[in-house]
Queue: 2 jobs
Job 1
Amino acid sequence: MSKPHLETHIGPVRLKNPVIAGSAEHLIDAEGVRRAIRAGAGAVVVKSTNESQTARQQLQQAEYAVLDENWNRIAWDASAPRSAVVACRSGLTPQPFDAWLEQTATLDREARNDDCIVVASIILSELNHAVSMARQVEQAGLRVLELNIGTPYASQAAKGAVSTELKPERIAEIVSAVRAAISLPVWVKITGQSERVPDLAEAAFGAGGDAVVMAGRLLGLIPDLETQEPLLGTTLGVGGIWHLPLTCQWLALTRSKLGLGRPLIGTNGAQSGLDVARMMLAGAAAVEMSSQVMLRGFELLRQAVNELDAYLARRGENAGDIVGRAADTRKSFAQMEVRQDNWRNHIPR
Ligand SMILES: Cc1cc2nc3c(=O)[nH]c(=O)nc-3n(C[C@H](O)[C@H](O)[C@H](O)COP(=O)(O)O)c2cc1C
């Protein structure tokens, strides 16, 4: 059933709702992508590819952990509490590029029946290869390309396997090259491992990006008390509910720097429809949910859409109405009311 009040626009791209299934391992197999489509996602970003064999090999060395609030490992399933921390190393799709492209194009054609878009995803390794792959993505008839230039792993993986771009000039160079090669909408996914996320977003838009996805996961190290070694042996990409305020902060700062005409997509920390609403209030036109769907199952996407629907219905609002509301009412500290000695209520009695 069509629900016009859930529709959102990301530049020229209309989505039936703002809940996007974000790229991760559950979107490698065609059946995973189909399940995300059937669960009602507005768009599905497939597992990323690039030309690096090492990046592909990394997937076969990947490990995944979920931890409770005492940093104890718990089962990787839907019983994990909402507060659980997800920590992992990942790699890229095991499929050869041609097979990945054919599968992705077929799935995007199928997705039209559900008014859903299947988004191709390339993680930058070498720029000329990325440009050539982007051209092939367009020629295959896909409707949107997500270009991830901000994976958490560049400093940890083999040289050149993946990229964590931290300089606006370099982002401008990459996005310009891709933009010059294709006319397809390009969503640029940038790192959160920077103090300059709004500057990185500005560079991506300035070079012709249609939307910016923010912000990629952070790196962390979790010491294991028994082995006295790092959990899973090394530095990991870490995420969880705790990242939601950081994502919202980047969204709000970027919106205030770049203005309303620059579509932002939230990623990192959304677990529910209400979290999607939170990121939208901070400035996102749509929100990607990745690790939580991988952990809890595809039904989480349907629940998120229904929860957002109920929130908007209760308030009599459309999805587009709420984008950036909290960001736009953000005040400076100096504008805040005086609350004399309020600090005394917040120290031990
Ligand atoms: C296991 C795993 C694999 C991922 N693989 C990809 C990928 O191939 N391409 C990509 O752009 N992002 C990838 N991501 C990043 C997610 O799409 C997402 O941006 C990130 O996990 C933060 O959002 P979340 O809190 O909803 O998980 C991956 C994340 C995880 C946990």
Job 2
Amino acid sequence: MVLEKELEFRKEVVNGAKKIYEKGLNDNNEGNISVRFGRKEEIFITPTANQYDSLMVDQITHIDFEGNVIGKGKIPSTETKLHIALYKARPKVKCVIHTHSPYATMLSIVRKPIPIIMEEQVVFLGGSIDLAPYGEAHTEKVGEVALKALNKKNGALLSNHGVIVCGKSVVNAIKYAELVEKLAKIYWGALQVGTPIMLENENLEKFYEMYDRLFSNFPKK
Ligand SMILES: [Zn+2]
């Protein structure tokens, strides 16, 4: 039985999961989405072997920051350590999404970070999308390297693996996951036809200011 106070959080995970699936960012059995349980050191996350198209609230796994399952529920995703590392480091983060979206994953395999190519990238993600070195998916290391690649930003690529994003809301995190994939596709396309020109930081001040004010979730002190 699902407790009433948990229900809205479980629903947020299910609805978010269905959105990233519908947008083609993850297929069944890959990636994951989690939501922080209010102010607690606990999260709700999609289960291992997740079937996005038939996912239901009682299949969402409730775990604490040590990775222990609370109550009954399916085994959590093997990548929970990645999610927990972000929640621990960034108290403002409400939602973490990990995808294997194709264009971003392609760039992660040829180990190409995405430089600043569009203004919206700065506004929503905080700048370039950097690349975390390879870290085995189910280990602590993947969290460490992801945090380093994220730096103060909202999204990063994981070498030979995919994408990690985090946001102050589920809506924001979905937006970031989509935007990383869109930028990866655009950058990939631009590389096919010429040499991409990066935007200059000196012209981006107002966009950095918008990022800091509206979307950054990196602790200020
Ligand atoms: Zn993965």
